[in-house]
Design a protein that fits this description.
Radius of gyration: 15 Å
Number of strands: 0
Largest sheet: none
Number of helices: 7
CATH class of the largest domain: Mainly Alpha
CATH superfamily of the largest domain: lambda repressor-like DNA-binding domains
Helix content: 55-70%
Number of domains: 2
Order of helices and strands: HHHHHHH
């Protein structure tokens, strides 16, 4: 196993844990939401397996991340050097860069929830 593969496994695990944290879901709940087995999500989290391209599509829709970014994260696609317009930083990353140690964790979580709610409303056309 190469260092790149280990990095990808760790990045995938961190990504999945962050998605579960944001959506307040357990691995079994996320598995049901994505239409895969709990064992599949467990293998993704442990680094034993990576999502298929179809599962990456579901993860992109579920997480709100661009499909290209999810495919790159798991190793199905080489990352491009030039930035993509949709590669905006997540709110938490932006806050920590722009206002280090100025906002409390609870406030950041509330704002993230509001952003996610707004994204869902936009998806549904409301």
């Amino acid at each position: 196993m190469t260092i790149t593969e280990i990095d990808q496994q760790q990045a995938l695990g961190a990504f999945l844990k962050e998605v579960m944290r944001r959506k307040r879901r357990l691995p079994s709940q996320m598995a049901a939401d994505l239409g895969v087995s709990h064992a599949t999500v467990s293998r993704w989290l442990s680094g034993e397996d990576i999502p298929s391209i179809r599962s990456c599509q579901r993860l992109a829709e579920y997480s709100g991340w661009p499909l290209e970014k999810v495919l790159s994260l798991v190793g199905h696609l080489q990352e491009r050097d030039e930035p993509v317009a949709s590669d905006l930083p997540e709110f938490r990353e932006y806050v920590y860069l722009k206002y280090p140690n100025k906002l409390e964790e609870d406030l950041v979580s509330v704002i993230e929830d509001l952003i996610e709610h707004r994204r869902q409303r936009i998806k549904l056309g409301r």
